[in-house]
Amino acid sequence: MAGYILRRLLQAIPVFIGTTFLIYFMVFALPGDPIIALFGDKTPNPAIVAQLRQQYHLDQPFIVQYLIYMGGIFQGNFGVSFSGQPVIEILARTFPVTLRLAVIALLMETIAGILVGMVAGLRKGKLFDGTTLAISLILISLPVFVIAFVAQFVFGVQLGWARTTVGDGAPIQDLILPAIVLASISFAQIVRLTRSSVIETSSLDFVRTAYSKGLGRRRIIPVHILRNSLIPVVTYLATDFGVLLVGATVTEGIFNVPGVGNTLYQAIIRGEGPTVVSFVTVMVLIYLLVNLAVDLLYGLLDPRIRYVK
Amino acid sequence: MRIKRYGVGFAALAVASALVLTGCSGGGASTSTTSANTTAIISTNGSEPQNPLIPTNTNETGGGKITDNIFAGLVYYDEKGAPQNDMADSITTTDSTTFTIKIKPNEKFTNGEAVTSDSFINAWQYGALFSHTQLNSYFFEDIEGYNAESDSVLTGLAKVDDQTFTVKLTSPQSDFPLRLGYTAFMPLPSVAFTDLAAFGENPIGNGPYKLASTGAWQHNVKIDLVVNPDYTGGRKPQNGGLTIKFYASADAQYADLQSNAVDVIDQIPDSAYQTYTTDLGDRAVNQPAAIFQSFTIPGRLPHFSGEEGQLRRQAISEAIDRDTITKVIFEGTRTPAADFTSPVIDGWSDSIAGSDVLKYNADDAKALWAKADAISPWSGTFQIAYNADGGHQGWVDAVANNLKNNLGIDASGAPSPTFAQVRTAITDRTIQTAFRTGWQADYPGLFNFLGPIYATGAGSNDGDYSNPAFDALLAKGSSETDTAAANKDYQDAQSILFKDLPVIPLWYSNVTGGYGTSVSNVHFGWNSVPLYYEITKG
Prior knowledge:
The structure holds 2 protein chains of 2 kinds.
Chain A: H1 2-29, H2 34-37, H3 46-55, H4 62-74, H5 87-122, H6 127-141, H7 144-158, H8 172-202, H9 205-212, H10 217-246, H11 249-254, H12 260-270, H13 273-301
Chain B: E1 4-6, E2 18-20, E3 41-46, H1 61-70, E4 75-77, E5 83-85, E6 88-93, E7 98-103, H2 117-128, E8 157-161, E9 164-168, H3 176-179, H4 196-201, E10 209-211, E11 217-218, E12 222-227, E13 241-246, H5 250-258, E14 264-265, H6 276-280, E15 284-296, H7 306-319, H8 322-328, E16 334-336, H9 362-375, E17 381-387, H10 393-407, E18 410-416, H11 419-427, E19 434-440, H12 446-454, H13 468-479, H14 483-500, E20 503-515, E21 519-520, E22 536-537
């Protein structure tokens, strides 16, 4: 087990180098000069532009820029944004906010999704099943920004139940509404995954054996059916956690959450290489860790899965 | 040039964000004597400053909104854009070349340091020095000793005594005193120069407001300002402080306004253009701003030089139905252009000789185009380049359709994915089409809309326009000592532009904004930013 974890962690190193290289290259290949764009519609003095370009190493060939950046990282220096802030500080400020948002959303969708999905699967074809199917279909087909705008307008502006945007310090109560929005779509997916998985597991031999042994539903459903149905759901949750950390740009924008998505988006627009690459690198690392955690979780859910060196 | 960027907006959800120029306004009276709560904090929208809060390095609206409130320059602009003495006791000149500036005695920074001639001279020297690469350094280019390509001391700045200094310019600039209210000319306390990066994080100013505490700037979230009791100038706050919340999108701030989570906003999102006047009633604001929008046709494009070029430019201008486009596409949040400046600027006129060329006249346009064809037949497509991340597609397509239908030529937009890409192509002159251009005034003067863009060899002369008669009128205006006479020269200079049309004027951007039920006495300044010091609450 320890050897397996170590090997997986070692595998992360080439992935880390590969992704930083690719992302850095993509930012580098973005058309246009970010320094010129700093001046808006005003045409800057070429000498000043040259000087600034030199300051951010933008006058160097790509590989030199990349090596300067990587060299910095190994000294704990993630570079500096155009506004003069160390990227590491921006990371430290924004990741906790997005992480909080992602965890709240994940908890909501997991608890609600598995419960509803399980009940629907156990009552296949009944009214509850049909209703959840319809609702999940609607949720899946709505784009997230539609849900976000409607939720913001109805609950924030009209009813006044929640704050329209996230306030100072991104407190948990402000994050609930955006988290519900984020959770809504994944909730629908989890319901459907859990439902079909529960239906499939219910008809397997070991479940029938359990029933014929005389075990009660209270034991069979959680221990035999649910536990064995969770593998696809856990896989989905892991991917979704990654998506929540990375892809909440739209929702973060609408609710003005000072998180990763929002900040990364601005950095891409400004062509701030170090900021973009550092953000994406941290995201990749989180993705790798989450996936490792999921692989380990498989073993707990299904004793047949074992890790070999 | 103030620039403003947005993050994810409603229109931007598909791909874009925008680099939107946002603007300015003026007009209306501003007096109120309500028994308001002088400790109430006003909240407003803003965006995360893109640079440390150092005046000479702040060239975008996010930072400018803060620096303008925590610093006080020699002059400030009142609601109409007229300069009023702030730190200055007097600014005098006899030849518009050498200015003697006297500073009011007993003015202090919030750390107790006196505001003296050195506070200004040192700040300007710092800002102008080449190797400091300050984004606003070009503001000092008219001062003697300025060098844009290597380090050089501004020899034109001379200290007389603690309260007096003189500024010598390289050429007469009658509107130099008017410029002094711009952010770049703010004073700095001596402590700033020991560690400018740290200073930019927790600036110490002399303006109507000051930072509430060390660390009051919470990055990406907000900045808290409180009243500076030592400030004695004309911008005495009628409230207890100002919280500027940073929004990534105009949609979010509009939602906050509707739920009373923010008091004043100076930008309505595109998605609410149709509804905001009904949503807000008389708390909605929509007035012209000091922002001029146009597209530039470089003279080096085939068919656009000489007499043929003049005819074609006039034809294009007359073929555009500005009234309909501003009404239909912009819901009245733009005002059709009548000149090359802005209606909020002193000296603006909608009846300059030659301005008829801005009136929609399809028949005349067709005739002019035919005349040009007689000189040399037209071939190819007329394209207007724009950045797709800025919400420009609607009007570019509308203009292209106007040209197609009225001139019978092939016309289209030429989108580039990013703002940086278009600007780079414009700057290195590789662009081979017409392109979108815009100008937001730095200070409220006609010259600022003309000199930097159309003078021969000027910094933002992206179309490489050059006309000696125009240059001569600009120089004449700059050397006048009487403002009215100078404005007359600038209007005459625009007559020449109407003939040559180096850019095709389109419209002025309006400032659109609104405020909540709990605040009153909200007026927008000439530069589209609310005059926060006047606002009362409760």
